TrEMBL record:
Its EC number is 5.2.1.8. This is Peptidyl-prolyl cis-trans isomerase. GO terms for biological process: protein folding. InterPro entries: Cyclophilin-like_dom_sf (IPR029000), Cyclophilin-type_PPIase (IPR024936), Cyclophilin-type_PPIase_CS (IPR020892), Cyclophilin-type_PPIase_dom (IPR002130), Cyclophilin_A-like (IPR044666). PPIases accelerate the folding of proteins. It catalyzes the cis-trans isomerization of proline imidic peptide bonds in oligopeptides. The lineage of its organism: Bacteria, Bacillati, Bacillota, Clostridia, Monoglobales. GO terms for molecular function: peptidyl-prolyl cis-trans isomerase activity. Keywords: Isomerase, Rotamase.
């Protein structure tokens, strides 16, 4: 049964939560893929494994280090890949698909922009926006981080569950 809701409630292990509104008019296949993964409870128990001040928080990797994905890659719905209808700009709160160098390598990993990242426009498939609880995503920045970019949380930032909201 297809879920008609385009809002996803993200509940964190911390007890905090936020809501992502999905925009199929910009990236229909991306939204369909994300909704399928939410329906399958794919994201439950996964982490935000990369958090970078002034840029973004990235999650959705089943391995937890940015190298994994679901079983399926999707077509990159962004201008450089021939999708001119995706004009959603990477501004604060916008949710977009992470990918490797290949334009059609997005799978399950996504990121949420902290600030304007319009330099990503046309290169990544933006497909939603945090419409409630952005302060929860901001709290990820308070976690101690290590690594080359200083973006790997020392204490895991765990997604308890994702479900469809009204």
């Amino acid at each position: 049964m297809e879920n008609k809701s385009n809002k996803v409630l993200v509940e964190m292990e911390s007890g905090d939560s936020f809501v992502i509104e999905l925009y199929p008019e910009f990236a229909p296949k991306t939204v369909e893929n994300f909704k399928t993964l939410v329906s399958k409870k794919f994201y439950n128990g996964l982490t935000f494994h990369r958090v970078i001040d002034g840029f973004m928080a990235q999650g959705g990797c089943p391995i937890g280090n940015g190298t994994g994905g679901s079983d399926e890659n999707i077509v990159g719905e962004f201008k450089q890949n021939g999708f001119v209808d995706n004009t959603l700009s990477h501004t604060r709160g916008v949710v977009s698909m992470a990918r490797s160098m290949s334009p059609n390598s997005a799978s399950s990993q996504f990121f949420i922009c902290y600030d304007d990242a319009s330099f990503l426009d046309g290169q990544y498939a933006a497909f939603g926006k945090v419409v409630e609880g952005m302060e929860t995503v901001d709290k990820f920045l308070e976690t101690e981080r290590v690594g080359a970019e200083g973006g790997t949380p020392v204490t895991p930032i765990v997604i308890k569950s994702m479900s469809f909201a009204e």
